[in-house]
Amino acid sequence: MAAEIIKVVDTVSEAKDVEREVLFEAIENAIASATKKKYQENMDVRVIIDRETGDYKTFRQWMVFEDDSRELEDPDIELRMIDAVDIQKDASPGEYVLQEIESVDFGRIGAQIAKQVIVQKVREAEKQKTIDQFKDNLGELVSGIVKRVDRNGFYIDIGNNSEAFLPRREMIAKEAMRPQDRIKALLKEINTDLKGPPLILSRVMPEFLIELFKIEVPEITQNLIEIVGASRDPGLRAKIAVRSDDKRIDAVGACVGMRGSRVQSVSNELNGERIDIILWSDNDAQYVVNAMSPANVVSIVVDEENQSMDIAVEEAKLSQAIGRGGQNIRLASELTQWKLNILSESEALEKDDAELKEITDLFVETLSVGEDVAILLAQEGFTTIEQVAYVPISELEKIEGFDEKLVNELRERAQDKLLIEAISTEENLDEHGPEEDLLKLKSVDEELAYSLARNGINTREKLAEQSVDELIDIEGLNEEIAAEIIMEAREIWFDEDNSNKS
Fold this sequence. Notes:
This protein is an alpha+beta fold. The protein is 47% helix and 20% strand.
């Protein structure tokens, strides 16, 4: 039977390209499993096969512990030193002692058990080999042939005895695919769990679109053109932003290709997905205008604080700018990383008029100026009293009709208004400043107490009700200090609980 073992190992090793050692270990495990069933005892069995001759011996083994060890739990597989030396004189704690027992005949092993163990080991070895081969290729394009299909997805032969899995959720909607079809996909994930497919593919990620353009447009791989970003509605529409530092190169034209040949090749691979190629700009507003293609933008208002823009388009082009189901505006927003709000030209004018009136009324009321002066300030981009008070004088003097006298008067009135507000705030703080119980906390000094009071926390009870997240934005506080003062403030709660229990 020894020759049969060597034959099995050599045959499977050559056919499956699996190391002989892996197969020997699998057969040893199979024989050990069969031996346990033969003896029908709780025992730890070890089988050792001679790698050259195929001869094998079977041993019962025990783990050895010190005589005074308390770790011993199962005497069937564990022994103390005093008993281990009776079996093997040179026994040592932490090692195994072996006792040879009768081996089962390899030819009489449950053949099915041996086969299952070997097949499992072969599969694990193949998957590990695939993982090692592709671990540095994550995010890259792979191509292969569809081997088989089930309800979960498609199994793709990508060469070198490697198989990848394309889940249905990563497929383009309504895309037909059959066995023996050749496809391309992005290597999305490497599954190190040997129980599942090792390589997971995707055809819906924006990165897949980018990789396809790298194939079709050689200027990209030559670093003459850079792809800045992409957004997709898989199978329907996509936007991709490109740029080039070489002014002689038309980045958009190069990606489109002669008579649209390059972009058409990419579109065909994506089941007819329509692709808008956008010229990137370092000016955010211009980048958004480009991304809104094919819609023409009439005006745009940028709100940097909220990372949003109001975009005005002609009334007749409003539906085109929004796109079917909001597709165009959504893709443009994902591409540019700005929140975009679409308005018709008339709606934009109404909104501008309303905002202009609000700012004008503010200046009329707070600066005691006429409506004409207030309108001029608003039209020049002034929106707050602070801007009027502290902007360089030269900026105000540039406004048509503003002379030195008027500018100085406006600045004085604005500064006076801010001073009155500051005094009012301080007086309010004096009235509603920190209470005595807050000032008595050891971890709260006077400066911190007033800082808390300015944020509406002027008593110990109010402080105790706060969370760390609510306090860390207050000046003079970090997460550690916030946690400390809250816990001290809450000590009174625990004292009350203890007194109630007693």
